[in-house]
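Students often ask why we bother encoding 3D structure as a string. The short answer is that it lets us treat folding as translation between two languages. Here is a chain of 67 residues written in the first language.
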Amino acid sequence: MSDYEKYVTEVNNIFSILEKLKNSWTNNDSLNSIEEINEYKNPVIQVASFLQNQLKNNSTDDEELLS
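And here it is in the second language, the structure alphabet:
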């Protein structure tokens, strides 16, 4: 498993757990904390996309060196 795949798997696990907590908790302070964390979901996804693009670019550069 590549570093990118590990990263994506762990991020998915984190947000999956947060969703389960949100559905089972009733305390407003706790729910607000979960919502605050969820605000970081889009930036985390953007970083994953950036990592994937970097890996593709590095792979392309390596192929060019081998040619």
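Translate back mentally: The CA atoms of residues 6 and 12 lie 10 Å apart. Keep this in mind for the problem set.
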